[in-house]
Amino acid sequence: MSNFLAIATVTETLRQILDAAAAESRISGAVATALRPTAATVGLPAVGVNLYLYQVTPNSALRNVDQPNRRGDGTVLEPPQIALDLHYLLTFYGKEQDLEPQRVMGSVLRYLNSRPLLTRESIRNAKLSLPVLAESNLDEQIDLVRLIMMPMTPEEMSKLWSIFFQTPYVLSVVYQASVVLLRGDEVAQPALPVSSRNLYVRTFRQPVIEQILSQKPPAGEITSNRPIVVGDAIHLQGRQLKGDVTRVRLGNDEITPSELGDTRIMFRLDMPPFPALSLRAGVQGVQVVQHVRMGTPESDHAGNASKVSAFVLHPVVTAGAVAISSRVVDGMTLCTDDITLNFSPRVGVSQRVALLLNEIDPPLDRAARAYRFEVSFVPPNPSDTSVATIVTRVKDVVAGDYLVRVQVDGAESLLKTGPDPNHPAYSEPKVTIS
Questions:
Q1: Closest C-alpha among 345, 221, 212, 205 to residue 285
Q2: Quick check: do 208-313 and 316-433 share a fold?
Q3: 286-335 pLDDT tens trace
Q4: CATH topology of domain 208-313
Q5: DSSP β-ladder status, 81-93 and 48-58
Q6: Which one-letter DSSP state was computed for residue 65?
Q7: How many CB atoms lie within 10 A of CB 141?
Q8: Is 335 exposed, middle or buried (0-12, 13-18, 19+ CB in 10 A)?
Q9: β-pair type (172-183, 146-150)
Q10: DSSP-assigned states of every residue in 350-395
């Protein structure tokens, strides 16, 4: 690494190299300077070569090689560095009738082609000849600075010379000096040495969930088309599902599956294995998470995880009604009742709940009556995040028997059919409004 004098040191070292190259042209008085090209010839050589640094760019290969260089708390882990490429314009001067610019150019290009590196010795000579560079440490940089001739189209050369206002074009080429590493002067805080090392090599195995199936316990059919409720067994089918330590993530909870294989995982939607009161109705995102055992002693570390797959957990509800009041309008008895709804799983305080009532066995001369009520509730204890029972009031419902359904975040509870297989009409859960 080099300090802030590195750029100037490269320029002076290159100027001295060009000075030696110009002398080999066998043209009397040929020298090298390092000035800005201008219309006035003051300072520029009558015959020789001029060196001008016109652009500095970050080195694309090394610009991020030192990241990160700070710890999470902001302290310096390693002094930061910046990797630079220096772009130089070499212009050639002399008597055109004697082809002196071209002769000097030939000597310079041949010299640089055979000596493409700034050697440590040449850098030290530059430091000795120019006292302001005495503290430069470019000669200690591990990578030597390499000189590369850059191709320039006529259009690119025209744009380059346009930055030198009212300066006539002279014979020129462009060279790049790469790479110059400037290091910050921050002092890194030393860390304790590593007492032991563990090396782990594993092939990449990305778990993939291809299908989510459910099963009614204890030995129901495993299928993909039945609604899922609390207590069901979930079967995840896919590939590369088994790892060192395999868990299933549902929402914010991780559990250990009951059955585990490379192509199938099974777990119960129950508490346990899930933490008490943790399950909620609605759309559920499920992932297979594989932890890696590492360290001394070994502990779980984050490994691979499948993409999130989704299924709908339907609520199970039972209901009861208590009459509050009634009134007769146009010959119909309109009732106000309190309906008690018992949920499994519990309902979170932030979830949206709707109550649906559908009339059972209406007369054939009219359509069945149906009602929808938005349910709002407040937990009895302000610290509770969920409730198992909600009491909601319905108003102006025509007296009769009604099937009860609820929607929790859009997930709808299920209805049961009667015992007659020839007439599988819905029969439960129901309430009597009176």
A1: 212
A2: yes
A3: 999 999 888 888 888 888 899 999 999 999 999 999 999 999 888 889 99
A4: Immunoglobulin-like (2.60.40)
A5: antiparallel
A6: T
A7: 20
A8: buried
A9: antiparallel
A10: TS-EEEEEEESS--TTSPPPEEEEEE----SSTT-SEEEEEEEEEE
Q: What is the DSSP letter of 2?
A: B
| Contacting residues for 337 by C-beta, under 8 A, at least 6 apart | 321, 322, 323, 324, 393, 394, 397, 431, 433, 434
- What residues have CB less than 8 Å from 114, skipping those under 6 apart? none
Torsion of CA 393, 398, 400, 406, to 10 degrees: -40
HSE of 213, CA atoms in CB hemisphere, 13 A? 16
CA dihedral 97, 100, 106, 107 (to 10 degrees): 160
pLDDT in tens, 371-416: 999 998 888 888 888 999 999 999 999 999 999 999 999 999 999 8
> Looking at domain 316-433, which CATH architecture does it have?
Sandwich (2.60)
Spatial distance between the Cα atoms of 5 and 10, rounded to a whole number of angstroms:
9
Whether 176 and 148 have beta carbons less than 8 Å apart is answered as yes
Six-digit token pair at 204?
Answer: 């990449």
pTM of the model: 0.58
**Domain boundaries along the sequence of the chain:** 6-183, 208-313, 316-433
Determine the Cα–Cα distance for residues 174 and 104; give it in Å rounded to an integer.
Answer: 15
Contact 14, 177 (CB under 8 A): yes
DSSP H/E element including 128: helix 120-129
Strands 31-33 and 48-58: parallel
